[in-house]
From TrEMBL:
SUPFAM superfamilies: Cytochrome P450. One of its GO terms (biological process) is secondary metabolite biosynthetic process. Coiled coil: none annotated. Its cofactor is heme. This is Cytochrome P450. It comes from the Eukaryota. GO terms for molecular function: heme binding; iron ion binding; monooxygenase activity; oxidoreductase activity, acting on paired donors, with incorporation or reduction of molecular oxygen.
Length: 190
């Protein structure tokens, strides 16, 4: 929500997709998700920039192994810095910008097959809730954007939003987002 409020053109694009696919007379359903590629791209881009588990869960090398030119001794503790990987300028164009479009018409997904993008980890210890989390985050974001118009409290400009992250157990927003909702659906369901 913070990135969308900060980038009103992206929010408009998402509202537009929701209006076209669902219309403004009913709420979003789980079965709509497969027809909302821009929504999915917004979630992927958010997980790239603001991956909650920035160093994955610590892993251990069960045997000495070679990774590129590095020898990893048996029993080393391994931390994978997804925060750095997913903002690496050698891999990502304009890495600090919120650009969901980079995931449109792209086969890159978060299933752990592409080490440039691993917000849920990879391999045997990949997040077991990947599929659940992917659906719930899309459903919640779609419902928030589809059911309400969002604006900032008077006097706050999108460009001034504080986007600093804070590292606790997972990465969180240092300054909570304050927004004002206004119902937009023309239905009695909300
Ligand atoms: C967007 C939401 C989520 C993200 C980005 C996420 C990400 C991750 C990551 C990066 C790992 C570590 C993988 C690794 O070290 O290779 C992990 C592990 C795990 N996640 Fe998630 N997760 C999310 C939601 C959830 C939810 C909702 C649950 C539970 C209902 C959950 C349960 C777990 C568990 C139990 C593990 C440990 C798996 C193991 O070590 O074998 N996650 N998750």
């Amino acid at each position: 929500m913070s990135e969308l409020i900060k980038n009103p053109d992206k929010l408009l694009k998402l509202e537009d997709e929701l209006n076209k696919v669902i219309g403004i007379r009913r709420e979003v359903k789980e079965s709509d998700l497969e027809n909302l590629p821009y929504l999915h791209a917004c979630i992927k881009e958010t997980l790239r920039l603001h991956s909650p588990v920035t160093l994955l869960i610590p892993h251990r090398a069960t045997e000495t192994c070679q990774v590129m030119n590095y020898t990893i001794p048996k029993d080393s503790q391994i931390l994978i810095n997804t925060y750095a990987i997913q903002r690496d300028p050698e891999v990502w164009e304009d890495p600090s910008s919120f650009r969901p479009e980079r995931f449109m018409n792209s086969s890159m997904d978060y299933q752990g097959n592409d080490f440039r993008y691993i917000p849920f980890g990879a391999g045997r210890r990949i997040c077991p809730a990947l599929s659940f989390a992917s659906k719930v985050t899309r459903l919640v974001l779609a419902s928030l954007v589809h059911n309400f118009e969002w604006s900032l409290p008077e006097g706050t400009k999108p460009a001034e939003l504080d986007m600093e992250d804070i590292f606790v157990l997972v990465l969180d927003k240092a300054v909570p987002l304050k927004v004002v909702p206004k119902a937009r659906l023309q239905t009695d369901e909300v």
